[in-house]
Write a structure and sequence with these properties.
By secondary structure, the chain is an alpha+beta fold. The chain has one domain. 25% of the residues lie in helices and 11% in strands. The protein has a three-stranded mixed sheet, with no helix packed on it.
C-alpha cells in the first residue's frame, strides 16, 4: 500500500494499491493561502480545508487465494 499514487505504482509487478492524496491540488491551495498572506499581511481566521483522498486498488490488494472474494472490496 502506498500513498500519493506514485506514477510507477501501476507499472511494477504486482501493481501497488495506493491512496491518492492529490498533492497537486494541495500545492495549489497552499500557494493561494501564501499569496493571500503576503498581500494582506495577516493570517485571517482559522479554517479547515479538506481535499478528498481516493483509494486506488491494484493487484497488490487482490485476494488470489480466495477467488470467491475477488471484486467484493
Amino acid at each position: 500500500m502506498g500513498f500519493s499514487n506514485w506514477q510507477l505504482a501501476g507499472l511494477v509487478t504486482p501493481s501497488l494499491s495506493s491512496v491518492d492524496q492529490h498533492g497537486f491540488q494541495m500545492g495549489i491551495k497552499a500557494t493561494e493561502i501564501l499569496i493571500d498572506l503576503l498581500k494582506n499581511n495577516t493570517l485571517g481566521e482559522d479554517e479547515t480545508l479538506e481535499i478528498k483522498t481516493e483509494l486506488v486498488i491494484r493487484e497488490s490488494s487482490i485476494l488470489k487465494s480466495k477467488p470467491e472474494l475477488e471484486g467484493k472490496f
